[in-house]
Design goal:
Length: 206
């Protein structure tokens, strides 16, 4: 079992772990305040609750799961994709409080983690609005980036951000990501069918 405790973000270390070992059990990450853990069926109501908040979905290309049942289905699909080594879906909780308050998803832009180093990794994340502006997502993403650097060793991590989401762009910039360009009419919103521009933010790891 890979149980990573990242309390010193500046610590330099490289861990040689095979992809098989990495995906044999879900890799938990602990930071100073947070636990990044596997989501389970019991998290479905919390997941639906924060996706139901329009502040969360304002800058997304969908409106989130329509019900707690759909949220449970989504969690199971994420966990199935983890078993297939196609993504790592972390739920964010406080270390002292297991209630789900956000997510971080890490996945290759194409294929699976078995194709290591061939493709960049894509980062996605959401957080319950009452936890905004507390440094929660900064801490969570630093933990994921540190884990990725030392256990997966990619050359590049990137994130796709709607240009109006300046808070997310500022957050990624603080973590060392650079904006590389704008993809015009790159995504279509699942519900409104509006075409969305996307800013590409990237972090080179080597």
């Amino acid at each position: 079992m890979i149980d990573v405790r990242i309390l010193n973000m500046n610590e330099e270390r490289v861990v040689d772990v095979s992809i098989e070992a990495l995906f044999s059990t879900f890799p938990k990450i602990e930071t100073e305040r947070l636990m990044l853990r596997q989501m389970e069926a019991m998290d479905a109501m919390d997941l639906h609750a924060f996706y139901a908040n329009k502040k969360v979905t304002k800058h997304l290309d969908w409106h989130g799961p329509a019900s707690a049942a759909d949220s449970g289905t989504l969690i199971e699909s994420w966990n199935q994709a983890f078993r297939e080594r196609r993504l790592i879906p972390w739920g964010i909780s406080l270390r002292e409080q297991p209630q789900l308050m956000g997510t971080v998803i890490l996945m290759p832009t194409r294929g699976a983690f078995d194709d290591e180093h061939r493709f960049p990794l894509t980062l996605g994340y959401d957080l319950r609005p009452d936890q905004w502006n507390k440094g929660i997502m900064t801490e969570a993403l630093r933990g994921v980036i540190d884990f990725t650097k030392h256990y997966i060793h990619p050359n590049r991590i990137q994130a796709e951000v709607v240009p109006d989401n300046q808070a997310s762009i500022k957050l990624l910039s603080k973590l060392g990501f650079q904006q590389e360009g704008l993809l015009r009419q790159y995504l279509m919103h699942e519900v409104t069918h509006k075409l969305l521009d996307v800013a590409i933010m990237a972090l080179l790891m080597n």
